[in-house]
TrEMBL record:
Listed GO MF terms: 4 iron, 4 sulfur cluster binding; metal ion binding; molybdopterin cofactor binding; NADH dehydrogenase activity
Protein name per Swiss-Prot or TrEMBL: Nitrite reductase
Keyword vocabulary terms for this entry: 4Fe-4S, Iron, Iron-sulfur, Metal-binding
Lineage summary: Bacteria, Bacillati, Actinomycetota, Actinomycetes, Kitasatosporales
Gene Ontology annotations of biological process type: respiratory electron transport chain
Length: 791
């Protein structure tokens, strides 16, 4: 039963946090007075079990009219001014149409975001290719997980960030965490590492800084930034030299071992120590800790991935796992810790430059035919692959003359950000759809205010590959519309009257059909199932494995939670990650109880209002639903022959090594109270009080050479620009390295400095390491140059 107070619905709505890829469960309850909703624990959701970080607790602050856009803005005489929706949409349609007519469809660019729901990402990709006819679409997730995705596809034939649920982590024997500071980026996930150690497992953290996460480790390896590839190769060398390879596994489940082994043997321990700064005894201890337990995992994040050699680096860590027989076995394997809220789903359904829904390849004729049939278009009308994210941004003002941008803030988040800002200013036309007036939106010709997480229903896919249902808890302010509405109206104005519904469940039903048979198969997932089961892991075909023929192509085994993996004698433990509780938890979380929600809380088309009993499963009549796939690769990998592939890789230097003019390395990252470009979190008072601005973290030895005290202004200068921020002196960083968080614009913008050198496979820029010099920033404008850092 819905609870009301003075005519206002006060029932709790179970939903998910708008921030990182954990997609923590929470309950939202409308409140009277000045607030919009309040957050309470949702202990029935297995990922966070009620725990929330400061960003999640304060997320309702973003619903306030005081901090967000509530009316469209159009630029008149150089100034953004309020306008009606019809005028704003007409201007966007005219700008895109004018560009297309004058320069051709590929002069229109589309740029999406990893925070868009699956429905929005799907519709945006369809809009670009069907309505605009452009190949020029990519999204900011290219800057996050693309190297891990590319490495996973090369090795396993499939990219799903974690091929196992988070609940497996505390049960393994050893975790090697490479380039992740979970304590600050995903605080609720730190409990999995705590439980790992409580259960007798060991934790190895690889990070050039002694972070809060590294402080929890049994062994902390602090390599020089940009040398993770050499480190992984050195560990594999020792695995071979010490006779710790799993020869039976290698013979039965892999290919390419001989070449990969030869490459690793060229990286002997002393050589790797010279490259990385990690001592040979530490290398040997890491190998012992990783190889001795029956089960072990390697988890990577942006540290090793955001490099011009990120794909090879991920490949080297996967090789280490394969050589020791880890992937596809219980509580073992390789995984990537996806970052953005829908970073996983956002890279599956068509907003990437080379992709169609279901993680299909745009240059695959069969994929084009399938998706074109769902869309009702000629396969030959679909454009081919386009530019990657940075290349698209770099082409603005020349090849790309107009841009439609959703849910991204590249003025702050892109590498070589001052150049990207200049390119944005050079466009003939820029339209931005966003919740807030970001630094990028400030440059637009038209700004469209759109709904956010608590004001709309839709699905996201978390870092485990668990598809989740976000539910609408409150109505948006008058004057705000959904991204789906924006795409529907623009399509209509540009001559495509059908195919862009505004109901997210209707979009999801089409997404299911478009993804059917693809690597990321959602065809067996419905809104009703997501509400009842606390999420469903993909791949999830429309029929259960025993009720259908084997899927066409190299699909991983679609197993339920009790499947027996190769090399085991019993079933895997069944945990809460498989099918969530059927009874409602605190605040009604989890299950549909048959009650009709109030119409002013849940929109038309919400699963609780539309789904009938016959929709509880996604199979055909009388056929059981597929259970979803919590654990991948138990019987085979998603390659044509079912074998995982070693990829031979070799260490190579950074794209930009330090020299006499730029003698220090800069690395970048996040802090616990801010998120991504800060466009949202910098508008929350509590978070700003905890992290009010940028800083430069440096070692006392380097600070001493500069004559710098805590809090003194420092200038960090690269070949691309200059950033200024206060000094933060700590022995937790290497003497040859400085660190800056990247959440702020202005003179402290870290991405003014970063290097756009691209990985040849993933097209990932080299965010994580570039050569800089560090100078005292005198208030009167003078500077003092840093000496070369000592050893």
């Amino acid at each position: 039963m819905r609870r009301t107070l003075g005519g206002m619905d006060t029932s709790a709505t179970p939903t998910h946090c708008p921030y990182c890829a954990l997609q923590c469960g929470m309950n939202l309850t409308p409140v009277a007075g000045g607030g919009v909703v309040e957050v309470s624990e949702r202990v029935d959701f297995p990922v966070n079990r009620g725990a929330l970080c400061g960003k999640g607790r304060t997320a309702p602050a973003l619903l306030s009219r005081a901090v967000r856009l509530t009316r469209p803005l159009v630029r008149r005489s150089g100034v953004l001014e309020p306008a009606g929706w019809d005028e704003a949409l007409d201007r966007v349609a005219e700008g895109l149409s004018r560009t297309r007519s004058r320069y051709g469809p590929d002069a229109c660019g589309v740029f999406g975001g990893g925070g868009l729901t699956n429905e929005k990402a799907y519709a945006l990709g369809k809009f670009a290719r069907v309505v605009l006819g452009t190949s020029q679409i990519d999204y900011n997730g290219r800057f996050c997980m693309s190297s891990a995705a590319a490495g996973g596809i090369k090795a396993f034939g499939l990219d799903r960030g974690l091929p196992f649920p988070l609940e497996d982590i505390p049960a393994t024997g050893c975790v090697v965490l490479v380039g992740s500071n979970l304590a600050e980026t995903m605080p609720p996930a730190l409990r999995y590492l705590t439980e790992l150690r409580e259960n007798g497992g060991r934790l190895i953290v690889v990070d050039p800084r002694r972070t809060r996460t590294a402080e929890q480790a049994d062994l902390h390896l602090a390599p020089r930034p940009g040398t993770d590839l050499a480190l992984a190769l050195g560990l594999l060398h020792l695995v071979v030299a010490e006779g710790r390879t799993d020869e039976a596994y290698i013979a039965e489940r892999t290919s390419g071992w001989e070449a990969a082994r030869a490459a690793a043997m060229a990286h002997w321990p002393e050589y790797v120590e010279r490259i990385t700064g990690v001592s040979v005894p530490q290398l040997r201890e890491a190998v012992r800790m990783f190889c001795e337990p029956e089960s072990a995992m390697v988890l990577t994040a942006r540290g090793p991935e955001q490099h011009s050699k990120g794909t090879d680096t991920v490949g080297a860590w996967i090789n280490l796992c394969l050589a020791t027989g880890r992937p596809g076995r219980p509580r073992s394997g390789y995984g990537c810790l996806t970052g953005q809220g829908n970073g996983q789903g956002g890279r599956e359904h068509g907003q990437k430059a080379d992709q169609l829904p279901g993680y299909r390849k745009l240059d695959d004729p069969a994929a084009r035919r399938h998706v074109a049939e769902v869309w009702g278009v000629d396969p030959d009308s679909l454009p081919g692959p386009g530019r990657s994210a940075y290349e698209l941004l770099d082409a603005m003002g020349t090849d790309i003359r107009s841009l439609l941008l959703m849910a991204s803030n590249p003025v702050v988040s892109a590498p070589r950000a001052a150049h990207v800002e200049e390119r944005l200013r050079s466009l003939d036309f820029l339209a931005v759809a966003d919740v807030v007036l970001s630094e990028t939106a400030e440059l637009a010709d038209v700004v469209l205010p759109v709904t956010q997480w608590a004001e709309e229903s839709g699905t996201t896919t978390n870092l485990e590959g668990r598809v989740l249902l976000r539910r609408r808890a409150v109505a948006p302010p008058e004057g705000v519309r959904s991204d789906l509405y924006v795409l529907h109206e623009l399509a209509d104005r540009l001559g495509v009257e059908k195919g862009f519904p505004t109901d997210p469940e209707e979009v999801f039903e089409e997404l299911r059909r478009a993804s059917a048979g693809g690597p990321a198969d959602y065809s067996g997932i419905t809104y009703r199932r997501l509400a009842e089961e606390n999420g469903v892991f993909w791949p999830c075909p429309a029929e259960a494995p025993e009720a259908a023929d084997a899927p066409a192509g190299p699909h991983p085994r679609a197993t339920g939670p009790r499947a027996t993996a190769p090399g085991t004698t019993g079933p895997q433990a069944e945990g809460p990650a498989t099918t969530g509780p059927r009874a409602a938890g605190p605040g009604g979380g989890g299950a549909w109880d048959g009650a009709e929600p109030a119409s002013d809380v849940l929109p038309e088309g919400s699963p609780e209002r539309r789904a009938g009993p016959e929709d509880a499963g996604a199979g055909t009549a009388g056929v059981p639903s597929h259970p979803g796939t919590p654990r991948l690769f138990l019987d085979r990998f998603a390659t044509p022959d079912g074998r995982a592939r070693f990829v031979a890789v070799n260490h190579r230097p950074l794209a930009e090594e330090p020299d006499d003019e730029y003698p220090v390395l800069l690395t970048t990252g996040r802090v616990v109270a801010q998120y991504q470009s800060g466009a949202q979190t910098r508008r929350v008072d509590e978070l700003n009080a905890a992290a009010p601005g940028p800083f430069v973290e440096l070692h006392p030895r380097l600070a001493g050479r500069l004559g710098v005290a805590e809090g003194d202004p420092l200038a960090v200068v690269s070949r691309r620009g200059r950033a200024v921020a206060p000094a933060r002196i700590t022995a937790s960083i290497r003497p040859d390295t400085v660190f800056m968080p990247f959440h702020w614009p202005g003179e402290g913008r870290a991405n003014t400095l970063t290097n756009p050198a691209l990985d040849p496979t993933s097209r990932m820029p080299e965010f994580k390491a570039c050569a800089v010099r560090v100078e005292r920033a005198d208030p009167q404008g003078g500077t003092g140059r840093a000496e070369r850092p000592g050893g």
